[in-house]
Amino acid sequence: MQTRQLENPFLEKLGAILHAWREGEVEIQLPIDPSLLNRTGKVHGGVICTLLDAACGYAGLYTPAGADPLQGVTLSLTTNFLDSGGGAMLTAKGFLERRGRKVYFARAEVWLDDVLLAATAIGTFRYIRPGAGAT
């Protein structure tokens, strides 16, 4: 798998790292720190949803190094929270399920310390031209 920059200011501000990326698959890691926790001391659900959305999205946007980048927007995302716990690292794994000319479908998982499956998602995404709106 190829390693590159996320080129996403929001994910980078969170501290997310594009760990691995290749055609149809992506792995994004996020070290857990206290700023990502909710009142119960568990990782906030919004953080997990963000990782699921990013992993699904990036799974359908891979291009080889040096090629023009692809961009897309989320049309729908269905999430399932399965478990929670403490740990040091969240890992989101995204997988491209099917690609059309304008729309693609992907699924993702978020793992806590590569041991506990915390959440899953399926999503529908639309390709956009760089600089174009989502309409």
UniProtKB/TrEMBL annotation:
GO terms for molecular function: fatty acyl-CoA hydrolase activity. Keywords: Hydrolase. The keyword Disulfide bond does not apply. Residues 41-117 form the Thioesterase domain. The keyword Hydrolase applies. It holds the Pfam family 4HBT. InterPro entries: ACOT13 (IPR039298), HotDog_dom_sf (IPR029069), PAAI_dom (IPR003736), Thioestr_dom (IPR006683). It comes from the Bacteria. PANTHER family: ACYL-COENZYME A THIOESTERASE 13, THIOESTERASE SUPERFAMILY MEMBER-RELATED. Belongs to the thioesterase PaaI family. NCBIfam families: unchar_dom_1 (TIGR00369). This is PaaI family thioesterase. It comes from Noviherbaspirillum sedimenti. The lineage of its organism: Bacteria, Pseudomonadati, Pseudomonadota, Betaproteobacteria, Burkholderiales.
